[in-house]
Design brief:
Layout (H helix, E strand, L loop, with lengths): L23 H17 L5 H14 L4
Helix pairs in contact: 1-2
Amino acid sequence: MDHDTAEPVTGTYPNEPRLALLTTAEARVAVELLRLLERLDSGGRGPAAGQLAADLARRLPAP
C-alpha cells in the first residue's frame, strides 16, 4: 500500500443521535461494583478497581 498518495478516509454517518455506551445509572452501578471488588480483593486487582472506580465517579454528573 502506498501511503504517500492515499486518499482521505470518507464515509457517511447516520443522522440519528448515538446512544451513550452506558447510561448514568449503569455507570453508577459499575462504580459500586468496582468499589466492592476493591474491598474483596485487596491483594490482586482491588487497588486497580478502586482507582478505576474513582476515575469513573469523577466523570459522573452529581446526583
